[in-house]
Specification:
Family: Belongs to the CobD/CbiB family.
Subcellular location: Cell membrane
Strand order of the largest sheet: 1-4
InterPro entries: Cobalamin_biosynth_CobD/CbiB
Function: Converts cobyric acid to cobinamide by the addition of aminopropanol on the F carboxylic group.
Radius of gyration: 20 Å
Protein name: Cobalamin biosynthesis protein CobD
Number of strands: 4
Oligomer: single chain
Strand content: under 5%
Order of helices and strands: HHHHHHHHHHEEEEH
Helix content: over 70%
Amino acid sequence: MSAVLAFLLDCLLGDPYKFPHPVKFMGKYIRRFEKFVRKKTPTENKLRYFYGPLLTLSTIAIFFMLTFIFLKLLKELNYVAYLIANVIILWTTIAPRCLSEEGYKVYLPLSKGDIEGARERVSYLVSRDTKELSEDQICKAAIETVLENISDGIIAPLFYAFIGGAPLAMAYKAVNTLDSMVGYRNEKYENFGFFSAKVDDVFNFIPARITGILIIMASFILRYDYKSSFKIFFRDRKNHKSPNSAHPESAGAGALNIRLGGPTSYFGKIVEKPYIGEDVEELKGVHIIKSIKLLYVSTVIFIGIYALVLINI
């Protein structure tokens, strides 16, 4: 029931800006650790094989143990307070409303013909160059973000909550935060963030594949092209440098009859990426809305399965 209540709480409140979100504390710890390490000017080799792994393992351990100890103590003191705290902690590990709102904020200016406004909004979501993106490229960037993060931002933390409760869900959130902050494949983080990126790949391996299947199921319920979703998922789910990202993206691209991926500009350089899906339909703002619907229905399916399994254990 905790997962259901956490999902409903997120749908109702989202991520209040003034709320002391655990990710804020994770971010502060990661930045201070990095600042301390870089002041010592270690060699790139030491960043890769010592400080990078130390950052990753310490962040995961700290936030797992803090959550575990807090809930254990609370359970002994007041069981009702423990149940409430468990729901609140799970709420902080998922982000369906936040993710859907970010997608909608890109759709809104597009629906009014405001390309510049849409470019600005999508620049908050992606690391690619956005100043000269066309309408279809803006849609592609927003849809890829929504689809990929169905796994990273919702299904994965719920999956780990199912296995190990709120503490493991919080540990996953630490992994995901590490990857988003230091897991870049650029000169600055190639070595320091190498271990974090690999751990993120491992943690997301199963959830990404589950998410792809959930999106196929959601496309059937929403009366999207579920046959194409199934076909494209199995055909294109490996068309990405990441071992995980293309699984939800391929299922979603098939469901919407659109093509994602392809050449993309990062920091002034064109990066060749494999295509995912087929351009049966021209990318439009409406596809962003459809991807958001896939997000919610996929999540509801997973929570429903989650609840049924728990009831029968």
